[in-house]
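Section 5: illustrative case.
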């Protein structure tokens, strides 16, 4: 059984864990806000860093006639989980990437447009739309269509999670909290 001091320590550890969760939530909200207010050029550059950390290689700018000036069109090789059965190397897929630098929402029509233009991105078989805006439900429905090419959608919440996971735009502080290992003492005491 735990002593009163052990129970108090366990309660405090839970309180620290809850505070860390609250701080992470606030950091994510602040990160979303910061990303949405970035100048377009800076946002594009930050997304390039994110893509590289996510394992996208051979990134090239794609010039698309009639493309909106706030969009950055790229082609790259996205590393997938697993190994290529033929070469034994990393399994990759050619990916068409559109970064909405103006923070506008992603709708169904952008998914359709990207699917129809994959051939302009070096023979891409996969599409990826990123924005500091929202991904609308119509876009999610269209991206989920099983008979069409795969399109990954990354809106403000997903983007903030990726930045948090890869240390982009955030600083990580480590805090070590020693706590008595009551289970260990119990094991030794029961012998």
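Designed sequence:
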């Amino acid at each position: 059984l735990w002593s009163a001091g052990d129970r108090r320590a366990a309660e405090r550890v839970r309180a620290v864990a809850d505070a860390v969760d609250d701080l992470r939530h606030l950091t994510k909200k602040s990160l979303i806000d910061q990303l949405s207010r970035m100048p377009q050029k800076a946002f594009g550059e930050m997304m390039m860093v994110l893509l590289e950390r996510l394992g996208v290689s051979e990134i090239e700018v794609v010039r698309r006639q009639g493309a909106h000036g706030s969009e950055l069109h790229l082609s790259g090789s996205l590393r997938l989980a697993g190994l290529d059965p033929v070469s034994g190397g990393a399994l990759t897929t050619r990916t068409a990437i559109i970064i909405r630098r103006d923070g506008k929402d992603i709708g169904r029509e952008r998914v359709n447009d990207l699917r129809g233009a994959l051939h302009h991105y070096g023979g891409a078989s996969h599409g990826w739309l990123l924005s500091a805006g929202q991904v609308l439900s119509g876009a999610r429905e269209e991206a989920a269509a099983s008979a069409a090419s795969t399109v990954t959608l990354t809106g403000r919440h997903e983007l903030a999670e990726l930045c948090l996971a890869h240390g982009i735009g955030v600083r990580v502080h480590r805090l070590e909290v020693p706590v008595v290992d009551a289970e260990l003492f119990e094991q030794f005491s029961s012998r």
